[in-house]
Structures are given as structure tokens and as C-alpha cells.
Amino acid sequence: MGKLLLLDIDGTLMNSKKEIPASAKEALIQARANGHELAIATGRGPFMIKRVLKELNIDTFITFNGQYVVHKGDLIHKEALNTDTLSDIVEYAEQRDHPIVFLTDERMVSTIDYHPDIDEGIKSLKFPHPAMIEDFHLTHEVYQALLFCEEEEQKQYHETFKNMQFVRWHRVSCDIIPEGGSKASGIKHLIKATGHAIEDTIAFGDGLNDLEMMDIAGISVSMGNGHERTKELATHVTDHVDEDGLAKAFSHLGLI
């Protein structure tokens, strides 16, 4: 059996122009031909990765940092955020003028009509500012939320909501996921379906939300553009995503 390759999107598969380098695409096609299985592991939601899935012909993915897992097109695990906890966070954030964006498997919705931080953060993912719907989280399954605040303002949330994690992904935003939720928990659900042993997994990432995944995987690779903590933890550090880092890592590991 080949390896199960777990690929983060932003900064790993996609370069700084939010494009998949030709070298990476070629490497993925070759790795698949060599018997390895490809899976996406991202903080994004399913609706946000449709183009990538189609472009790479992938139908297995961990989204929302482990909250929503699909294997060969079938949903094998989903865990929505607790509605009461979300309500408490929303109230706390509103008192501090920190907007929140809710994510379902199909769309994103804002607690506010417009905010420059939301515009900056969401635009970096090449998506428009989401529409506002009041109390959206009370009537929909929300798998992840984005809190918009500066890094130093984040600490108070960690202290107040100990059953949740706030994982920074952007200068003005962090993901809100349950304590214990991560791409690593998504991998545990996924390998039951694929039949791989954990030793047969290779994780590729660059961000803070990749740390648990890299820790649990048999082998881990940090991109040269990765966060310092990601580089420290990884088994290997490859070149920058803009300098064919992913293809070079595949070659180094003998996948291609």
C-alpha cells in the first residue's frame, strides 16, 4: 500500500498568488500514479475548496481543521460547534467590537454588515465579504467560526473559553474550533476509512493549524515559508512554496 499524503492548501499547495504551481500539480499526478493516495487537510470549508478538488481530481478531504471529513465523496465525520458556546463567544466578541464569521459546509455568514478586518482576511482567501444574517448560528450547523481581532486581543478568549481553541491564521483573524479538534483528529477518522496505518501518513503544511497534524503523521514536511513552530516540529523542511517546495519534497521523499 502506498502512503496517504495529507496536503494543506494555503501556503502549501497554493503559492502566494493563490495558484497551484505547475511543478506541484505534476508531482501530485506522478505520486498518485505511483500508488499514493492524496487528501486535502485544510482550515477552509468544503465550499471553499471545490476548484482545488476539481483541478487535482481529489475527492478525499479534511476541512474545518478536522470538523468535516469526506472520503471518496462520502461524508464520514462531522462535528458542529456547540450553539450555546457560540452564543457566549458572539456576545463576548460584540462587547469588544470583534466581528465573527460563521462557516457551514456550504457558505459563510457574518455577524456584521461590513468590517475592514473581515474584508482583508476573507479577501486573502480570494472570497468576497460575506453577507450578514442575524443569529445565523442558532438555526444552522456551524463547523467553524472566524474571530476577527489582533493577536494581542486573542489571549482573553483563550482564558475565557477554555473548551475552545483560537488558532491564528491571519494578521487579523483566528479560527475557532473545539478543544481537541484539529487536522490530527480528522486524520484519525480518515485512516479508518482508507485502511492506512498512521505510520503511512505524510503531512505537508506551513501554518499553526498544521502542528497537530504534523505531530501525529508518520512523516511531516514544513514548507520553507512555514511558521517557525511548524519548521521546528517537521521531520523535513523544504523550499518556499513559490520555489517548487512541494515538488522538491515529493522528490526528496521518493514519492516521485
UniProtKB/TrEMBL annotation:
Pfam families: Hydrolase_3. GO terms for molecular function: hydrolase activity. Keywords: Hydrolase. InterPro entries: Cof, HAD-like_sf, HAD-SF_hydro_IIB, HAD_sf. It comes from the Bacteria. PANTHER family: PHOSPHATASE YKRA-RELATED (PTHR10000:SF25), PHOSPHOSERINE PHOSPHATASE (PTHR10000). This is Cof-type HAD-IIB family hydrolase. It comes from Planococcus shenhongbingii.
